[in-house]
Amino acid sequence: MNWRVTIPMSAAVLVIWLLGAAVTKYDLAQMAYLAPVAVVVVGATIGIVMLWVKIIRQSREDRRKRG
Q1: Angle at 51 between CA 53 and CA 12, to 5 degrees
Q2: How far apart are CA 48 and CA 56, in angstroms?
Q3: How confident is the model at residue 1, as a pLDDT?
Q4: CB atoms within 10 A of CB 33
Q5: What is the pLDDT, as a whole number, of residue 29?
Q6: Which domain, by its residues, includes 25?
Q7: How many angstroms separate the CA atoms of 60 and 36, rounded?
Q8: In a 3-state reduction of DSSP, which class is residue 67?
Q9: What are phi and psi of 6, to 5 degrees?
């Protein structure tokens, strides 16, 4: 087991779980059931943002090279 990955990922899941319970109407027990869904949603959102940042950066770089 790689502790350099396990510890930060466990912390991220814990933060998502606690913030999800604080922001939504669900208590900690209910949010524990929804935590896997919340982790997937947060991960997908971060992935989409990173993709668009990459696209915008490449587009700007291509414009500078052309003009």
Answers
A1: 100
A2: 12
A3: 83
A4: 9
A5: 96
A6: 3-66
A7: 36
A8: coil
A9: -65, -45
22-55 pLDDT, tens digit each: 999 999 999 999 999 999 999 999 999 999 999 9
Tokens of 33: 């059931």
Pull the structure tokens for residue 49: 């943002």
* Number of domains composing the chain: 1
CA max distance for the chain: 57
Whole-angstrom Cα distance, residue 32 to residue 17? 7
Type of residue at 6: T
Residue in this structure with the two tokens 């696209």, named with its chain if needed:
55
Query: Three-class SS string for 4-33?
Result: HHHHHHHHHHHHHHHHHHHHCCCCHHHHHH
Question: Look-up: residue for tokens 């350099």?
Answer: 4
Q: Which of 28, 29, 53, 23 is nearest to 41 (CA)?
A: 23
Cβ of 21: how many Cβ atoms within 10 Å? 19
